[in-house]
Amino acid sequence: HVQLVESGGGSVETGGSLRLSCALSQLRYNNKCVGWFRQAPGKKREGVAMIYTGDGATTYSDPVKGRFAISQDNADNTVYLQMNSLKVDDTATYFCVSDLQGRKKCTLGGPPISWYWGQGTQVTVSL
User: Fold this and answer.
1) Whole-number Å distance between alpha carbons of 74 and 111
2) How far is the C-alpha of 78 from the C-alpha of 4, rounded, in Å?
């Protein structure tokens, strides 16, 4: 059965907003670091934002701090990424991830094998 499904990508102009959603199974949601990585063509994959669903603690990368907000909805086992003031440099495929290592403090790194990955959703920001 499906354990993680992303939605909400799309195309916007610079300065616009988008909200990404990540719906998770209870196993992938409860007391887990859940968040988003992104990867643009020709660039390294980078962690964007994480939330520990056990207590709501959040972590952001410097490029998105102050513009993006990650949140959780315990009723729906869903994590959201609100992206405001979008820039061309935010263009990428965004992947929702759920921790497989039992982290209690979320980081924006770790080997790919340590995360459960979604299929990705495309975000395109144009001038």
Assistant:
1) 27
2) 9
